[in-house]
Amino acid sequence: MMDGLSLNSTFSKRLSKKTPGLVKSSYPVATRFEFPFGTTSSYHNWKPENGAVVVCILGQDSEWWCSDGSHKLESEGPVLGHGGLAFPEALLEHCPKREVNMKDGGVLIMYPGLRVREVKGRSFMYARRANTS
After folding, report:
1. What is the number of other CB atoms lying within 10 angstroms of the CB of residue 104?
2. For 30, 37, 81, 109, which has the most beta carbons within 10 A of its beta carbon?
3. What's the superkingdom here (predicted)?
4. pTM of the model
5. pLDDT, tens digit (0-9, with 9 covering 90-100), for 91-116
């Protein structure tokens, strides 16, 4: 019987063969990434590179899918509770979104239609565009 890790690895390989447009991200996992939900505060201790989007998700062992289900976003590191990953904004440009201006000049981007499949934890996704100034 396969353990969860082997099963997940097998699923990913199978998916990459069958699903066109599978995207591998080389962007780093944030070392510390906190977002006080319900406020317009900025993120702490981590600034993404210009042109990147920080994607914040609560939960672990997640699979990241674009809202139309066309392709999966894969990261090179673990996604932990209150963890963040940065993806090029172009990967998410076709997803429905809502933008809110932040006090520090950044933009909070909400992707209500972005599907997140999780083994455990709650599923929702927010993103914040890096400051370009």
Report:
1. 10
2. 30
3. Eukaryota
4. 0.30
5. 556 666 666 665 555 555 555 544 44
